[in-house]
Automatic annotation (TrEMBL):
The N-terminal region may be exposed to the interior of the granule, whereas the C-terminal portion may be embedded in the membrane. During phagocytosis and degranulation, proteases may be released and activated and cleave BPI at the junction of the N- and C-terminal portions of the molecule, providing controlled release of the N-terminal antibacterial fragment when bacteria are ingested. Residues 1-18 form the signal peptide. The cytotoxic action of BPI is limited to many species of Gram-negative bacteria; this specificity may be explained by a strong affinity of the very basic N-terminal half for the negatively charged lipopolysaccharides that are unique to the Gram-negative bacterial outer envelope. CDD domains: BPI1 (cd00025). GO terms for biological process: defense response to Gram-negative bacterium; innate immune response. Its main location: secreted. This is Bactericidal permeability-increasing protein. Residues 260-454 form the Lipid-binding serum glycoprotein C-terminal domain. Residues 26-245 form the Lipid-binding serum glycoprotein N-terminal domain. One of its GO terms (cellular component) is extracellular space. Keywords: Antibiotic, Antimicrobial, Disulfide bond, Glycoprotein, Immunity, Innate immunity, Secreted, Signal. Monomer. Homodimer; disulfide-linked.
Amino acid sequence: MFLCCWLALVALIPMTSGTNPGVEVKLTEKGLEYGRQLGMASIQQKLKTIKVPDISGSQEVSPIGKVKYSLSNMQIVDVGLPKSALDLVPGTGVRLSIGNAFIQLHGNWRVKYIKIIKDSGSFDLNVNDLTITTSIAIKSDETGRPVVSSVSCAATVGSASIKFHGGASWLYNLFKNFIDKALRNALQKQVRANQTLFLIITLPFWVVAKVDQYAEIEYSMVSSPTVSSSSIDFSLKGEFYNIGKHQEPPFSPAAFSLPPQVNNMLYIGVSVFTTNSAAFVYNTAGALSLYITDDMVSSPIRLNTRTFGAFIPQIARRFPGLMMKLLVKTVKSPVITFQPNNVTVQATGTVTAYAIQANTTLSPLFVLNLETSVSVQLFVSEMRLAGAVTLNKMDLTLGTSYVGEFQVKSLNSILQMVLKVVVIPKVNGEFLTLGKALFIKTVDKRHTWDSIPALLGEKPVFYPSTTPTNLPLSYYTTRYGDNSHVM
Ligand SMILES: *[C@@H]1O[C@H](CO)[C@@H](O)[C@H](O)[C@H]1NC(C)=O
Ligand SMILES: *[C@@H]1O[C@H](CO)[C@@H](O)[C@H](O)[C@H]1NC(C)=O
Ligand SMILES: *[C@@H]1O[C@H](CO)[C@@H](O)[C@H](O)[C@H]1NC(C)=O
């Protein structure tokens, strides 16, 4: 349930104040309205499962005297919630109002009077004009954990009518008024008691989500959400950590804010702090390395000592007829920067070349130092996040040679080709995977990336950032929003 996802995002998250967020999420009135539509279907389902408690009592009915009655096995047959509204309550949270709702119940009746007369049958109850109004506050409790609570809840039943079947029904229909009243009271109480349950779905504790074998992302809130008349704004930590150890990176988040627009349903701003914390984690875990083998370079150029021997004759001479393998790895955390529409990754690493001996032993040939910069232009293609990577720069210098002196420059074109054919697509893929992971874990862990556009109706849009420190991603829908941000 969309609403509950959002509310759950607020709940159960420890608070640390005084820190800038890594990720900002803005849920606008339009988003809330869309959430209401999805949420009502879920509430309707839940209402159907309400267990109505048995009712029993006694009543003086002339001319019979005292009548003992009981109503049991009550089942909700139908529920309708034709009118509902979800409004923002600035400074507090949200208010849900349900009007004109109806419930149809079927159950069994049983009466006993004049000591010996017993009778039973079934009945149908129609409750109309049910009104429920509840305000949900978003605050933090004394431990600094935000909680969602129902501050007020009012339920009233407009009218109820009951019809008895079986037994001497004609007789009981005479005194149905008081039973009607008893039922109405019971129902009113029940609806009220369960209000909080409808709205607060207790989800498992999820402040930290695993991204993959190396990283997890923490999206606790750094401050209480701000509720204004047009949106609810969440400031999330949005920090990647190595699994199992919370090592802080040598940098901290800078302040940033989302653009003031509220035309779309949902706005998400991701700061460079978040992406750089990911780079830090993966580099520290040694995960930013890649072995490149001949089969990965699907090109007429083969990754063997013959090819490299053309540039460095010693290789062909000393290692004739062998396949080669390259190890590309970072030596420090890559640095990610954002420009409007453009994410640039600067990496410092090494390229180690090996000849693969017949017995599979790797003989090192040389180590090159690599300084590179690639830019990713993000866009949305067929409702999916996509990126086009361009190589801005590739500087190679000799680190160590095991094959004597040679001109590094002579390897430029072949290594650039390898970078373009193998490394960059891989970086692109990883980047997008990370982006999706970040998005899903932040927004809603129960939906997959592919179902999110469907969930929200339309597609995600990246639009030019006005500040270089964040990467706003917004969801919009043509039903509610305008398309002016579409690139
Ligand atoms: C409704 O509330 C009552 C009392 O708190 C509880 O016993 C009952 O299980 C609730 N029903 C549902 C469907 O949650
Ligand atoms: C992206 O930014 C980098 C670094 O500033 C720059 O070199 C590159 O030309 C930019 N690319 C585009 C397509 O704007
Ligand atoms: C593998 O072959 C190379 C070259 O013939 C040799 O130098 C090396 O000792 C061999 N290694 C093993 C483990 O057999």
